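JOB MANIFEST
job_type = single_chain_structure
chain_count = 1
residues = 670
[input]
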Amino acid sequence: MTAARLGWGIAGGVVLAVLGALLLAFALTDDPVISPLDGAWLVALASYAVAGALIVSRRSRHGVGWTLLAVGALVALAGLADAYAGYALESGAAGAVSARWVQSLLWDPAFAVLLIALPLLFPTGRLPSRLWRPVAAVGAAAAVCLVVVSALEPGPIGTDLPVENPFGWQAGAATLDLVDALAEALLMLAAVLALAAPIVRYRRGSAVERRQLQWFVYAIGLLVLLSAASAMTELLPLGDGIGVVLEIGAIASVPIAIVVAILRHGLYDVRVAVSRTLVYAVLSVAIVLLYGAAVGAAGAAATGRGVSVLPLLVMIGVAVAFQPARLRLQAFVDRRLFGWGRNPYAALQELGRRLVFPQDSDDALRSVVSTVREALRLPYAALVSPTGETRAESGAPVGEAVRIPMEHAAVPMGDLVVTPPRSHRVLSRPERRLLEDLARLAAVALHATNLTDELVRSRQELVDAREDERRRLRRDLHDGIGPDLAGLALRLEATAATLDRRPDKARAEITATARRLTAAVGDVRRIVYNLRPPALDDLGLEQALRQRAAEFGHGDPARGRPPLSVRFEIEGDLAPLPAALEVAAYRIVSEAMLNTWRHTAARHCTVTLHLDDGFRVEVSDDGDGLPATVSPGVGMTSMIERARELGGRCSIGGGPQGGTQIRAVIPVRA
């Protein structure tokens, strides 16, 4: 026989035993031999056997499944024996004493298994470690002692329709009382220690065990809540019926939660169950209080003190306010348990709202990580760049981190790093989906922050470049042209003083001064050329480049440099180009042609200028090409930097048909 068949066989026997007990207790006797509440306990405890069969049918060696089957079987047999004893005593049937005696032996081991074995074995079906074996052994020994005491203790057995113990040991009554007291003390001690096992598992166990134990704790809490509600129903009309239903739900909640924890813990989130339970518990209490007030008002009206419409108004108010109150209470409870995890739209809306008016870029990133933390009640959240730099963080990391990649326009922006709560250590699928949605918004915020930082740096670089240019101009004017002009002025003054006395010498000095003035004019032109080549204003970009290319057409025989023939390919109208773009293109092409003439054996060079959505510059030659390893010099670096200053890019490499190709693409801004 397989474990599954055996488990379902035991569960079927338990169900038949419970049905037989209920039939004997309520159908075949004039007065019920057990109370309705005891019947409810019997039905609910029998559900443990069904839960155990479900577990055993899927995991045959799981200790919790067999434990639940044992509890259900012991309770069902005890209930059947108790019901038959009551029936036999009332009807005069045989076996009443034996049935009562058997019933007295079964309750103690049933509760010992329930209070000791179940906490020790849940959720893995094994003890947490060998250190817990003494606890199990003490509990088992105490249960055996209690069974022996129940079997031999003299006196009546049972409270309803008691009978004398047929095997009572009158001479050993004192010894049995002592053993009974010690066994009960040991059983309570073992039960208390067994309840510590789930706590130890929760602190040291894996994320899966934590989720399973959360279901167990939820079931215990629900058991206490429903039992308290059942006790309160005695104050209401029809309280017995409601109390029976609540008791069945309270006791049956434990095996149901155990089955979910062991077989379906990854499918259902215990926090959802907790959320719904809290909402309906609060609403139920409110409705009970309102109902009690309505009944009290109705009773006062019935005593002759007047006709009251208060009960009707209370009922109408409850009917109208129930759904709005439930929705508001559900939202409040979900917010406390899940953050915005149950309402992703609210989380995204909150993040968008916080990003509308940030004080600065750092404040925007802090808003992102704080919103992520609040959205899912996380202990830690951070934005980490692709280089590993933490751009913003909130909270303190606890446990193993989860990294959600961030991308913007297919460009990696880093990771959104979070640590799950201590309670479950693993993010559920909805939580991970929400984090991925938040990561997309975080990537946009991070990209905007990077652009802002880059803009600030660019502005600072422009200011620095402007100041460097001013410093260079001041140095050229103050240290070069300025002293030259001052010296020439003094020289002319001295020449004027000797003009009448020594005219020949004065004419020679004037000639020398004129040469120096010509040199000073050349310096001024050089400075102006460095600011902006005059040919661009006089001729335009295309003709200025052609003029520059003509300078390389003669070659340099002294240095062995052949003439360089430059061919131009112009696509588009170059007239409306911005001034900065003209200067950058002129400098890049001039430097490329100069490098070709100086460092390669090329004889032909092609310059392509293409204006469309952007401005493309290509300079290619038929020379030897670049060496395998090349370190960029001042010229190559200046070309790359000029393109980058205008938001473009410049690449230098081999051409498709050999030689060297320089390609620059610069955006055109109006």
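[summary]
The mean pLDDT is 76.
The chain has four domains: 3-268, 269-338, 344-454, 540-667.
exit_status = 0
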